[in-house]
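Shall we go through a protein fold together, starting from nothing but its sequence? Label the sequence line and the structure token line clearly, so we can match residues to local backbone shapes. Would you write everything just below, so we can both look at the same thing?
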Amino acid sequence: MRLNKYLSDAGVCSRREADRQIEAGKVLVNGVVAVLGTQVEATDSVIYNGKRVTAVGEKVILAVYKPAGVECTSATEVQDNIVNYVSYKTRLYPVGRLDKQSEGLILMTNDGELSNGILKARYFHEKEYIVVVNKPLSREFLKHMRAGVPILDTVTRPCDVEKLDERSFKIILTQGLNRQIRRMCEALGYEVLNLKRTRVLNVTLEGLEYGKWRHLTADEENALRAIVSKNDDSAYLKEAVDFDDN
């Protein structure tokens, strides 16, 4: 297997970032500085930025109903991090982020290539949320949310917004600027009281209890991989955009 794919599959980084680190001389294979195109086997010793990399065996994808208060980070020194919360038998990483105050669906996997494919903002991958705000929804608020809101020196992409009741709405995003939904609401004079992500691409929270996790079904995994594979029109994986932080 090519070294950049080995590192991506291990969840260390994207293939493009692996190539950068290899060119910078920061990857060793069996004690020798690697070069672009280096081939590795499962028995080889691979060191990335001073740390041993273990090859991924079985690919695992979990759907997790993240409670509010759990932080979507793989940094184990962070209290209440999602890796320790799920405590799966093998090391898994969250796919993107869902902010600490929010609850809802987060995918976790040891498949770095799949994770990076899901996070590519240019493919307009859908994420769905239910949002409760602090005052009645106005027509102007809904209109601006759908059309795009100026935040973080840009204007958000047009998106689907459906009013559910006086103070709650469903929104489907195809991007994920930092704390995007909260910032959009704040820019329009509203405060988010509760934010729950209910869907990522074809995977939903349906049947999953608050704070629990499950493996994706075979049908879900096959459909998810098909979506990512269809969109990945590049011969090698380009660097992912940090995509989910609402």
